[in-house]
Amino acid sequence: MRHYANRSLKRLSRQLTEMKKREDGFTLVELLVTVVVASILSGVIITAFITGTLGFQMTNETSDLRSEADYLIASVLSDVNRTEFDAVTEVDGSFQFYRLSAPGISEAGMIYREAGYVPTDLILSEDSFTPSNPQITVERMTIQLKDPVFDPRRPTYMTGGLIEIEMDLTQSNDPDSVTTFESSIPF
């Protein structure tokens, strides 16, 4: 056993002596290859990080614009529903909402309406929309009535149809990125 241990120690001593004699280190080629590989890996990692950051930023901006469009449409819908209107007229792109006048009873006991339609306070136009977020601007707004149903006794009054609103919104800090939103409100 002693002989085996002695031989192992001699072999280990010889290997250490050989390692001391050799001057170990990295060659210039090995260093250059390492630098190139590290540069490629860091480029890939930085590109992936920047792409992810830009994607997140675009998603965030689109979400802000979508939230603002939802707010604008909800405020119009709320105003329209609150008026409890019976008819709409359009004059030069503005929509005036009307209610039927309150019925009266004549001396003979007959129910009648004196004036027909009475205007409400709500007038819907392209200027009716004011964003809640100061960083978002309304670039363009169109309001159209689709498939209107006209009152047969008063043909200028529409009693049914679809109010279609189309708006282009943009972030104030990036005026080139315009996003279009559309919504329809039945009445």
Which helices and strands occur, and which strands form pairs?
Elements: H1 2-21, H2 28-83, E1 87-91, E2 94-100, E3 104-105, E4 111-112, E5 117-124, E6 136-150, E7 158-171, E8 174-186
Description:
With 187 residues, the chain is an alpha+beta fold. It has a domain at 35-83 and 126-186. It contains two helices and eight strands. It has helices at residues 2-21, 28-83, and strands at 87-91, 94-100, 104-105, 111-112, 117-124, 136-150, 158-171, 174-186. The strands form three sheets. A three-stranded antiparallel beta sheet has the order 1-2-5, covered by helices on one side. The protein has a three-stranded antiparallel beta sheet with strand order 6-7-8, covered by helices on one side. It starts with a helix and ends with a strand.
What are the salient characteristics of this protein?
187 residues; alpha+beta; three-stranded antiparallel beta sheet; 41% helix
